[in-house]
Amino acid sequence: MLEDDIVHGLDDDLEIIINRLKGRSRDLEIVTISGMGGIGKTTLARKTYDHLAIRYHHFDILAWVTISQEFRVRNVLLEALRCISKQAVRVNAKDYDKMDDSELADLVQKNLNRRRYLVVVDDIWSTDVWDSIRGIFPDCNNKS
């Protein structure tokens, strides 16, 4: 099965998500895509993330973080910083190993602050995981 075959049935969902991300609300938006494994959630998120209007015209910074069942806050922070550092460099990536988790979280926040950003957090298996990383993402009142 080709990826386009999977997405064909999700075109309406893709349009809904893109319109929500481009919406008028200035508040931080959290869009959840949930359901059983194998229904195309990651594919839908990837199509949204790669959409031209989203990628090049609506957000200043984009990051993709995969959680999976082996959750470690540090890995999430490092993965986010790798994506962010390609677009807004404030610290050399070599310095990340010397930093503790709170310093990494602070760096993520500083790089996202005052910028319109989209962070896809893929493959979360529990709400506890989301609750533990939610505070990393600042609400800048700028449609992030």
Automatic annotation (TrEMBL):
Keyword Nucleotide-binding: yes
Keywords: ATP-binding, Nucleotide-binding, Plant defense
A GO term for molecular function: ADP binding
Pfam families (alphabetical): NB-ARC (PF00931)
Domain of life: Eukaryota
NB-ARC domain span: 12-143
The keyword RNA-binding is assigned to this record: no
Entry's transmembrane regions: none
InterPro entries, sorted: NB-ARC (IPR002182), P-loop_NTPase (IPR027417)
Record GO biological process: defense response
Database matches in Gene3D superfamilies: P-loop containing nucleotide triphosphate hydrolases (3.40.50.300)
Family recorded in the similarity comment: Belongs to the disease resistance NB-LRR family.
PANTHER family from the UniProt entry: NB-ARC DOMAIN-CONTAINING PROTEIN, TRANSLOCASE OF INNER MITOCHONDRIAL MEMBRANE 13 HOMOLOG
Protein known as: NBS-coding resistance gene analog
Species for this entry: Solanum tuberosum
Lineage: Eukaryota, Viridiplantae, Streptophyta, Embryophyta, Tracheophyta
